[in-house]
Structures are given as structure tokens and as C-alpha cells.
What does this fold into?
Amino acid sequence: MMRLGRAGCELLRWGRRELPAAVPRRGAEVLVSAAGGESSGIAEILMNRPHARNSLGKVFVNELFSALEQLRFDENVRVVVFKSEVKGVFCAGADLKERAKMDDAEVGHFVKRLRNLMDEIAALPVPTIAAIDGYALGGGLELALACDLRVAASSAKMGLIETTRGLLPGAGGTQRLPRCVGIGLAKELIFTGRQIDGQQAFSMGLVNHTVPQNNEGDAAYQRALTLAKEILPQAPFAVKMGKLAINRGMEVDIASGMAIEGMCYAQNIPTRDRQEGMAAFKEKRPPQFIGK
It folds into this structure.
């Protein structure tokens, strides 16, 4: 029998800390915002490092870690959207100016920290959506790949360009890209360092949706919000278990994956939301899920 392990089981025991309202901090490079009204339940991670095109510098990375920690324990959050506040850029990848000042040991340590950051994004219990309205290069695309879903403007530019800088992807790109688009395409994109636009990314399955860019430069974000709102009405615990079953199942053989699905399903059976779903169906009304 396949075990979920401590990380998977802890998903069921997270606390009830609530997400505070976003408080702008002077010089903050990452902010967390909680939507209200009909979008209540959608949290946004806002990346705002305009002078460096949201590149992955030390402060930026530390603040991303803090944002993830803030969201991880909030039961009110049902979907997380990653959005850039810098027009024309999602995330330009590594901060090469900072990197140039590091010795070899420091580079190795920092890249390991980046890999851990992407793993933390992937491990968030709720669905995550990357809204790619501009450049997502190198580590920026690796960040988007760590999300569950990706929406891109047709004019966006994406690529794992590390080989053009004498490097290889080091924050999960060599593993997540082939799982997303297949081995052959992933090798071609990584070996060539090629940049592709949103339409090309959609045609190869790298993004879930592509949309024409609008005058405000936030078309992908608007489409990501629409997608998030499709998720909001669904049973939160069932969605979390679905994500866990998919993520864990993709790492193992099909028989072990079936066992993982069975364990996730078993944990969903006694929930009040499952009972509510059955009652709503019987009574021919929309269900009112509470996440329990």
C-alpha cells in the first residue's frame, strides 16, 4: 500500500489562521492580497520589483517564502493567483547582477533555495494559477511551472533560456517542463534556450489558456480570475484532495496511484461537503460548501 507521507497527511491538519488584509509596505517586492465580494476565497501573490523586472533576488525570494507561509494555513483561501504588478513582465528569472557577486558555493546554496521555493509553491494545498502577461524567462517560467495552471497573453514570452547563459535550469525546469509538454519538446526548448509566445505555449500544452493582450496589459490576469471563479464554488476539501491525488499519483506507477486516489477518496467520504453535495442534488438546488 502506498503511503501519502507526512507532507500529504499534514494537509488535513492545517490550522485555521486567517489571511490578514494586505498592508502595503514601503519597498515591499511581494504582497499578498485577499479578494472580496464574489471573488472572496481568491488570494493573489503580487510580484512588484519593477527596477529588476521581478527577477529572483534574495529579498524577493525571501518575501515569496513569507507570502507562501502566510497562505498555507488559511482555510478561507480556495485559489491562489500569481500576478505581476510590473507591466510587460511576469518574472525575468535570476537576478544576474546579484548572482555575479556570489562565489560558487553561494550560487549553489541560492539555487537550492530557489528549488525549495518552487517546491513550496507546488505544495500549496489549493489550486494555483500563474497569470503570465509578459516575459517569463528562466526561473520565471520555473515559477509558473510550479503552479497548477497557467494562463498567458498571446504576446507573452516564455522560455528556459539558461543554456544561453552557460547554465541549465536549476529550479525544477528540467523536471517540470517534460512532465508538462513531454520529453522531446522539453529537451528542444531547454537545449536551444528558445523563447516562445503565448499561442505557441498553448499549442504545446505549456499553458491552459492563451488570450489576446488588452490595452491595460492584464488580459492573462483577467482570464486567470475567470478560471479561479470557476473553481471557487466547488467543494474545497474535494479540490484539495484531487490536487493531492494527482500530484502524488504522477510520481508513481498506476497501481500505486490508484492506492493514493483511494486514500484521498476515503478521507473525503465523511466530510460535510460530500453530504451537502448529495443533499443539494436530491433537492435540485446549488450546493453550499463550507470546506469541511
Summary: Residues 104-123 form the longest helix (20 residues). The chain has twelve helices and ten strands. Residues 1-24 have pLDDT under 50 and may be disordered.
